[in-house]
Amino acid sequence: MCDVCGCGNHGNTMVVSDDSARKTVEVKKSLLDENERVAEVNRKHFDEKGVLAINLISSPGSGKTTLLEKTIEALKGEFKIGVLEGDIETERDAERVRAKGAYAVQLTTGGACHLEAPLVHKGFHALEKQMDGGAPDILFIENVGNLVCPSSFYLGEHVRVVLVSVPEGPDKPAKYPKAFKTSDVFIITKADLLPYFDFDVEKVKEEALSLNPNLRIFVLSAKTGEGMEEWLNYLRELKKG
Ligand SMILES: Nc1nc2c(ncn2[C@@H]2O[C@H](COP(=O)(O)OP(=O)(O)OP(=O)(O)O)[C@@H](O)[C@H]2O)c(=O)[nH]1
Ligand SMILES: [Mg+2]
Question: What residues does the CobW/HypB/UreG nucleotide-binding domain cover (predicted)?
Answer without folding.
Answer: 54-217
